[in-house]
Amino acid sequence: MNKYVFLILFSFFNLPAGEKSESITLLQETIRQQDKQLAQYDTEKNTNDNKINELTKQIEHLQKELISINNELDSCQEEHSLLIGQRDHMKTLVK
Asked: What is the reported pTM?
């Protein structure tokens, strides 16, 4: 058990009844505040997770688009090479 929890519990049981009630009220309020804070963090985490998922989808889409563009570029380069070859062949025929 955490030493601080032990000290709190030990101190709590040695308090007079009226102070125990106040301490319980303060602890309950602290717990409520922490629950609210945790709920807010959970909401923020979910929002951030959703943003990450959306960005991941966009990245995947862009990667597919880039692959498509690279394939088209490869095709254009092959066609370009063929045209250069044809031009060079025609030059030799003209000479």
From this structure: 0.59
